[in-house]
Input
Amino acid sequence: MSFRKFTTLLSCLLLPLSITVGCTNVLKKTVDAYSVNEGRNFNYLCGVDQFGRIFEPVTGMNEEKHVGMFYFLWHGESGVTTHNITQLLKEDPDALFDVKGSSKSPLNAFHYWDEPIFGYYRSDDKWVIARHCELLSQAGIDFLVFDTTNAFIYEKSYTALLEVFSEYQERGWNVPKIAFYTNSMSIRTMNQLYEKLYSKGLYKELWYCPDGERPLIIGALNAEHDKKIYNNPSYNPPELTEEFLNFFDLRSTQWPFDPFIPDGFPWMEWLYPQPNHNGIMNVSLAQHPQLPFSNSYFNRNLNKGRGYDFDKKENIESEYAKGLNAQYQWNTVHKNAKDVHTVFVTGWNEWIAQKLNLSGAIGFVDCFNEEFSRDIEPSKNGTYQDAFIIQLIQNVRKFKGLNEKFKAPDKATIDIKGDVSQWDKIRNTYINISETETGRDSNSVDFKYKYVQEKPRNIIKEVKITHDKNNAYIMIKCVDDIISDTDENWMNVFIGTNDVKLQGWECYNYVIGRSVDGDKIALNTLDENGSATKVADARFSIKGDVMQIEVKLKDLGLKTKDKGFYFKVADGVENYEDIMDYYVTGESFPMGRLSYYYYF
Output
């Protein structure tokens, strides 16, 4: 061996083992993912959708990468009717396509492509806003951009949202920040927003400031630009003031049919692969280069629906519920990840379009049905369920998630009949973002429907888990003293063992809590239909606001050398054999198909 080779080898061996192995393979550093942001994080969140697509825990997020979401405030202000296109297509398509309009489907009225999972909610419904805040925070969304492109600012709606988001932020959660997208009469709209919100310093802690100082706003760069966009000779906007230009981080609106603007902020691209705007790239669920979207009902390949295959250049009906179109675009992001710092996703909750007479034919411009629409928020009766939420989180984590080594959990033997202080030394804690959950008492956009949802009887504050060589121990702490019940949906703990995957019922192969006998609580297996079969008893105790559970690892088919398990705690879910109701009723920690992982 030459002296040079020897010294090179020696230098490699002397490097800290926490950094390298040999000269080529970098060891991952160990991260206490529980402690990030004092435990108020979603690092251990995981999930699997109906198609078996998964996302797994991360040790943190890359703070240099951002993901934004297009968010709509117009429900109850612009849209005040609940005509449902999907329902009309089934029951009375003639009324839907009647160019004269009718009471069932009036001309110029806004129509929903289908009913959202939370009903035809108003955008100022704080119960719904809270659900949105939780889901978007869990998804890792850094900022929302409100659609004010039609020259309405929706002050009542954005104020309600800011009030709710501020409450979560004050409790220590990293919730999405906010910005506005303007287009028609852009300068007038931006000046309104400055006057009503920004000049007063309202909710300043929620402003999205990409440069760390100035809030983002998207619109016309000057009066000439504004006049060109609006294309109306009667509109004569003033020039933007120096005060305005110094205050905001102003980015140019970028419409999909306009020429490429390097510094533009795109909300949708008609080009594929989508271009990179100096580090900003758009991902949209569907695109309509041959307006309106409704024309695709008669000629499927005029536009690009949720299932569009960019290689085959056709809409694949069997793929739209999986979001094939969006995945192509996410793949473009991942291929160019080194050059992309911000992804802007369209969108969360658009839902509606006007019924227009376009040269003697009915047209719905921006959305029409489940396939030709672009909402991630689930519909009430749709086929895609929450697949777009899972797909979103999966791709957000691939884009900016950190995958270091998880610090091993604190292990202990717990006497579940003993004092709760035993858990003080256990840092393996999962804090509930919705610990101040309230009931719902609100109306639909047209006041036709009343939405009433009781406050959950047991609101979960946090869950702690530990284990020893024989048992797993679960501590569930609620906001108030736990209310006991004999219902099958009382304090259920759903468990999926080892790898996150489709197994048992909706990814859970066990449930604890379907029946109780003294200090024994049933452990049941779950089949794919949700049918429960008792296989063993776990032990439990309740003292005030704390429930403690002891379950044998062997009864879960687990050994300490295994990977671990993921879980959900739910109470009072009305339709407890329908996973989508875990977004709506009762208490579910976390919601829907989301779970938390506990590694051995």
The chain has three domains: 1-30, 60-402, 411-599.
